[in-house]
Amino acid sequence: MHLHRPVLMLVAIAQAFPLTAAQPVRARRAMVVTREDHATRAGAAVLRSGGNAVDAAVCVAFVLAVTHPSAGNLGGGGFLLARLPGGRSTFIDFREKAPAGASHDMYLDAGGRPTADSLVGWRAAGVPGTVRGLELAHRRYGHKPWAELLQPAILLAKSGFPVPYSLAVSLRADEKLPKFAESRRIFLHDGQYLKPGDLLIQPELAQTLERIARLGAAGFYEGETAQRLAQAMRAHGGMITAEDLRNYQAVERKPLEGSYRGYTILTAPPPSSGGVVLLEMLGILENSGYEREGAGSAAAIHYAAEAMRRAYADRSQFLGDPDFVQVPVARLLSREHIARWRASVDPYRATPSARIRPGAAVPVSAASTTHFSIADAEGTLVSLTYTINGNFGSGVTVPGLGFLLNNEMDDFAAKPGFPNNFGLVQGEANAIQPGKRPLSCMTPTIVLHGNRPLLVLGSPGGARIINAVLEVILNVIDFGMNVQDAVNFPRFHHQWRPDQLDVEPGISPDTIRLLEQRGHRIRKLKPFCEVAAIAFGDGWLEGAPDPRVEATAEGY
Ligand code: DON
Whose Cα sits closest to atom 5 in ligand 1? Predict the structure, then answer.
C-alpha cells in the first residue's frame, strides 16, 4: 500500500523531531537570542554586516540598557563568557565592586539587624562595571568600530520605542521607582503611566550613551557622567566617589572548566558561585542513575533537588570574591568531595537541610537580570549575563544621566549567617569589604562535545539561575530534548535554605504528591527564570528564546 504524500511528509517530520513539542528558531550560520526584540534584531544586524559575536554582544548590551530598563544597564555589572574560533575561551568579569567607603556592618542598625539600605536607594549601589567590561571585551576581541556598535541604542533612546506589555506592567507595579524624583519622572511619567505601545523616550540616556560612544569607557568613568554621578551620591548620602569610578577595572579570568558525561562545561568562576555550584551538582548526578524514571518524574526531581541542596549549602559557606578570600574551588570539585555528597543522597527520602548545615529562611522575591547568547559564523560564542540585581536596581536614576543604579550591595552577606533578598544564607567569605565584588549566582555557560559546541546558555533569576542552567543541560544531555523543549520544560528549584522545593506550573499534582511523600516541602511558584539558549547540531544553529517572557531569536 502506498502512503499518500502528506502522510509521508508527516512521517518524515515525526522522525526528524522525535518527542518534540516546540521548535527552536533555526539558522545555518549565526544566531542571537535575547529577551527583547529590538536587542535581538540589532545584534543580528551586527553579525550580518560582518561583526563578530563580541561586537554583537556589545551592541545588544547597550540596546538592552535602553529597551529593558529593569535589568539591562549601564549602572550594573555582569559576566561575559566567550569561546573564540581557535578554541580558546575567556571570561570577562565586570561585576560591581563595593565602594572604598564600604564597611562590614554598614547595613546593620544599632541593634545589629540588617536594614533595607542594601536594596533601595543611593547607598545600595556598588561601583558599576558594565561599561568597562564591554569596553574590555571589545578592545580584546571585537572588530567593528566601538561608536558604530552604540548607534542602535542611541537611536532607540532618542526616538523611543513602544513599551512592551511586560515593561508596562512592571513599571506600574514597582515600589522603588516612585520614591526617587528622577526615576518617577523618566520611567513613570510622574504618574501618567505608560501603556503598552506608548513610546518611552530617554533623551538623557541618549546623551550618556553618546559620551560613551565618543570617549569609550572614559566617557562614563571620568568627565561629565562621573562628575554628575559622584556629586549626586554626595548630595544623597551615597558612597560612590569619583575616585571609585576612575579606579574601577574589569578583569579577564580563566573560565571554570568541568565535565559531565563526556561533555565539557565552560562556566563562570568566582566571584560567581554559579560555575562551582553547577559543576558540583552535575558531579553528584553523573552516574547516579537519577534520570531513569524520565524527565519530570518525582524520582528525577527528587534526586536533582538533593544535589541542589548540597551544592547550595557549600555555596553559603565557602564562596566569595577570589581577590579577597581563598575560595577552595579544587576541593569543592574534587572527586572525594563529590562522591561523599553523592553517597549521602537517599533516592527515596529528602535529607532535611538542617542535617546538612545550619541556616535561616526567608521567602525569595522577584527581581531582575538578563542573559543573552550569541554565535557568529566564524565560531565565536558569547554567553553574557548582566544585572542591576533587583527589578530596576536600587530605584535610583542619577539626575541628568538617565540610567538606573544597581542594588548589588545586597548580594553581599550584610550579616553573615543571615539570608539576603534571595533567601541565600552566606558566610564571612562574602562579607562586605571596600573594593570587593559581591558573590553572584550568574552562570553564563558553554557546553562542548569534544571541540564542537553543543550549547550556549544562561539565565536571570537570582538564586534560581544556577538550577535553571543545570536543568536545561540535563534536559538536553540526559533526556534528549531539543533545546526549545529543554528551555520550556517546567522547572524546580532547591537552594538548601529555606528547606523547600519550588516548582513551576506544569509539574503535575501527582508528581508533587510523590515528592511530598519523599519528605519535600513543596512551594508552587509562578514561572521563573528566562533562559536564552543556542544549541548546535546537524549543521543548524537552534535558538531557543524563553516563552516565559517576550524573548526572541534571530539567525541567518
Ligand atoms: O548576581 C546575582 O546573582 C544576582 N544579583 C542576580 C539577580 C537576578 O538574577 C535577578 N533576576 N531576575
Answer: 389
Q: What pLDDT is attached to residue 362? A: 30
78 lines ligand 1 (CB under 6 A): no
Q: Give the Å distances, CA to CA, from 405 to 39, 155, 261, 317.
A: 21, 22, 41, 28
CA distances to 14, 120, 306, 384 from 525, in Å: 34, 25, 19, 26
Distance CA 532, CA 549 (A): 10
Q: Go through 469-507 and write b for each residue having 16 or more CB atoms within 10 A of its CB, e for each that does not.
A: bbbbbbbbbbbebbbbbbbbbbbbbbbbbbbbbbbbeeb
> 440 CB less than 6 Å from ligand 1?
yes
Q: Which residues of the chain have pLDDT under 70?
A: 1-19, 357-367
Tell me the CA–centroid distance for residue 368 and ligand 1, in Å: 6
- What pLDDT score does 482 carry? 96
| Residues with a known catalytic role | 369
Nearest to 91 by CA among 255, 308, 289, 300: 255
Helices 203-215 and 146-159: crossing angle in degrees, nearest 10, is 170
Chain segment 114-147, per-residue pLDDT in tens: 999 999 999 999 999 999 999 999 999 999 999 9
Question: How many angstroms separate the first and last alpha carbons of the chain?
Answer: 41
Cβ of 387 less than 6 Å from ligand 1: yes
Judged by DSSP in three states, 32 sits in strand
Alpha carbon nearest to ligand 1 atom 11, residue: 368
**Parallel, antiparallel, or unpaired: how do β-strands 533-537 and 540-544 relate?**
antiparallel
- SS3 state at 217: coil
441 CA to centre of ligand 1 in angstroms: 7
Beta bridge mates, 397: 404
Q: Is the CB of 442 under 6 A from ligand 1?
A: yes
Regarding the beta carbon of 241 and ligand 1, being less than 6 Å apart is answered no
Give per-residue pLDDT as tens, 392-410. Answer: 999 999 999 999 999 999 9
